[in-house]
Here is the input.
Amino acid sequence: MADYKVPMRDIQFNLFELFDYEQHWQSIPKFAETTPELAGAILDEGAKFFENVTAPLNQSGDKEGCIWNEGVVTTPKGFKEAYEQYVQAGWPSMSHNVEHGGQGLPPSLGQIVTEMSGTANWSWSMYPGLSHGAMNTVAEHGTEEQKEKYLTKMTSGEWTGTMCLTESHCGTDLGMLRTKAEPQADGSYAISGTKIFISSGDHDMTENIVHIVLARLPDAPPGTKGISLFIVPKMNLADDGSVADHNGVSCGSIEHKMGIHGNSTCVMNFDSAKGFLIGPPNRGLNCMFTFMNTARLGTAMQGVAHAEMGFQHSLEYARDRLQMRSLSGPKNPNGPADPIIVHPDVRRMLLTQKSFAEGGRMLMSYCAKLVDLIESDDDEVAKEADAKLAFLTPIAKAFLTEVGFESANHGVQCFGGHGFISEWGAEQNVRDARISMLYEGTTGIQALDLLGRKVLMTQGEIMKPLTEEIHKFCQANEANPLVSQLVDATKLWSDMTMKVGMAAMENPEEVGAASVDYLMLSGYVTLAYFWALAAQKAQDTIDAGTGDLAFYQAKIQTAQFYFGRILPRTAGLAQTMVSGADNLMAMDVDSFAF
Amino acid sequence: MADYKVPMRDIQFNLFELFDYEQHWQSIPKFAETTPELAGAILDEGAKFFENVTAPLNQSGDKEGCIWNEGVVTTPKGFKEAYEQYVQAGWPSMSHNVEHGGQGLPPSLGQIVTEMSGTANWSWSMYPGLSHGAMNTVAEHGTEEQKEKYLTKMTSGEWTGTMCLTESHCGTDLGMLRTKAEPQADGSYAISGTKIFISSGDHDMTENIVHIVLARLPDAPPGTKGISLFIVPKMNLADDGSVADHNGVSCGSIEHKMGIHGNSTCVMNFDSAKGFLIGPPNRGLNCMFTFMNTARLGTAMQGVAHAEMGFQHSLEYARDRLQMRSLSGPKNPNGPADPIIVHPDVRRMLLTQKSFAEGGRMLMSYCAKLVDLIESDDDEVAKEADAKLAFLTPIAKAFLTEVGFESANHGVQCFGGHGFISEWGAEQNVRDARISMLYEGTTGIQALDLLGRKVLMTQGEIMKPLTEEIHKFCQANEANPLVSQLVDATKLWSDMTMKVGMAAMENPEEVGAASVDYLMLSGYVTLAYFWALAAQKAQDTIDAGTGDLAFYQAKIQTAQFYFGRILPRTAGLAQTMVSGADNLMAMDVDSFAF
Here is the structure.
């Protein structure tokens, strides 16, 4: 059951029917050469690669896991070879700057490749995935020399990169970090400390790994304002830039964990390792935001990946598995029983997965356009896109990973008892999905970022560009049977923002008390907008008498499902988020258990 | 983190304050000798045993798993020795009939021991747990000779039992099963076929295992009306009842699965194995209901177990882990950060776990009383208890396992990234919990049982004893600030029953379309009743000036949390369940994916 089929029809629908990427790419000079034909050809190649090369390693990678032996990590069988093929085909350089060996294709196109790679085999995809974040960080904050030395090698895929933030006593609260950077006579720094949870921290795929490390200078102020960013290569470089001797970096152990067994989660020991300051001193956390935003959108995609994977597997099973008869009479009268897809509750689970996978894909496609637009020559356009993306990123990260995990669980449920058995792959999908709500900022942290830092600090201004876009859509499409419900949902969202804001002025604890519910409500409403948009586009296409009728009807039906059976979850959230922080805060710490 | 502390104060509150078990046991002649002192002494012993003997094997059992080697299953290190101690202490016989070696204690007391055993180590608890179901089946349907031969040995714990229902092509749809039973000249039957997913199907703890097997007689009608029940021992018995030679039963393999690694999930091959008919021919499924009801309540308890385990672990972590400052100012000013229990969202997760663990325990305590009452000398009392239990069993099974899984997941979330790492135990709790929504009838099957077979077939009559009890409570406690919300919730439940019933008359698919939402709503309202009851009892005790104030205040605060932040989930369910089956059924099977 390791099969994965890229949902190319849906991807194409998003790109060229729903979001008009043809015009979009043309509007940005540096991406103007990306035609639908070029994009289509690249995506077809990608589909072939990930369906045939990395998807078949997903289950074996989980079973085998990574092996640590005296500081050296060996990845599961086939991972290294797949990575070699990936590099040979030029995938790492795709959406990176041409100056350092990139192909200069739009980030939005890269994101679809990330979706394919991640759905096919999330653990494997994290090796190039983390590298991607490290590359962006060096590209944005590195000196020309650093770019020449490190970025070009990462862009070609010869080396990979990692991000070293977390320490055992601090994950969310990076202000407490202790890793030290001592200035050396040659201008470098001696980095000492221990980092944990370093994804892809060590592996056998490349001869060098470029670690981006948060550490403190000797004179640094305490807290988050005293953190600096360093490049620390696994192998020191010779003068010609080639790999020389070992740096003082080693992998102390790897974690035994619930899922993503194919990816090495490393404890990294830095023992006076040679490091190089990147960006200004004590501004490391600010520089890190570049990476964090990339990583958060990447993790948001993990939600889509697990929803899609769960959906594909359970759909196949639901069509094949014969069990019981339909409540409205046999649908497979010549067989011993009906396929379980006839049962309404099985359909409810399948459509939940489908509406989250396709809905999440729409949200990600929309965000990817904004990522492209940040590269626009028009500063105003870039600024607007940046603000919208800042608003949507925590929603995408937390909401999509939450519903991705839900979808993965429906995947298990559709299989009945077989869902619990490893060979079907459904349970692996749940285990792999579980991390997505934790790393790159938990759901709770995303929710505080959304509600506290973004919505309330701007007094709701930050959400207006999106809600105004929704209003415009609703006004223009009043005949759409979903629109009145969307109007209500958007009004509810605004009302709740106001109510939570008022409550927060009285008591700051109300922010944390409401935040996750608020984030989830935001996600449900945002996805409702995209589903209404998709249904409208599908109806317009049907009305025009063009296209594949069944495809567009299914879009409309999935939208109807979403509005009928998912969106009403907001009713409960709207009540709970303003039920008062007291019901959370009143209990004495000692009274939680007796 | 394998620690488990029996929540004895809460158990005692349920037994002797909330549900007046003292009077209850006295009202049933056969249990009249069970005084609070006796029960307390037994439970204290149980707490010692499970806290110290089986809980420490929970994590190692998961890591090691069971090993299959040429038909022989070896359980994880220490499991066999723990079982020996368990038998020596007399636990298997506790709530079984004295005629066959039992101690004749009330099932309700046995259920608390099941909770302790299951929370300490669910995998281990399934060896005696399945045996318990097999014992009940033989006790109810076996001949005197069968009881003498098999039941006494299972009651003493010398042997264990299993239930062999599922085949690879049929789990839910037992009517399709193929295992054959050929009558033999000596009155026995030759049983041939393959069963899968047989929990505790083989192990190294006892010299014999008594399998209760569903199979077909040669002349049996097709479907569920042609299934008979057989006793098939692993080892044949000599004339004196001792173990003789191997019967034709063997374990073909064990499953690799998501969780409960310490329990063997076996493929059992029956190759002309000697079996003995139990109960009337072709009535096997009816006889099996005895077991199924026991098993469903047992699995319901699994929901409580994982909620409790998740709660205990994450509470400990949330009190210790320092990360970030409280939004309302530092609470641990001398430390580097505040313990995460100061954060409202962490409290939201902890209180969700707590309200489900304690709420589930109340529901189970209530059900256990009904189980006891079935043994009442008063037929009317027994009949009423039976009907109420029939109604509550699918709610308890499906709702408590769903919220138990949710709670286990909150457990992971409270740990942040550490929740994903095996050594903390939080992720094992999720993996172990996941099976509970699948076996003994999936959530979907329980929901159809509740709504289709029970509520709608009786036109709602079956729910009336409970809803009338709730109404009486509300009338008697109008001053309780939770009561008006409980009145509304109960009315909503009745209204939704009516609405779904009306819709189902038009279209039978509406039953399946509404069933899971209906079940979940039923669960939320039922638990709301128990939380209101608990809050009232706590308030009464506080008003009387007796007892430990902090304990009773925490009960009231948890009830307030439940009403404020959990019960409102019913608002969404009430909308989705009547959103029309069309949004599920309209899509063509071929249109789910393109």
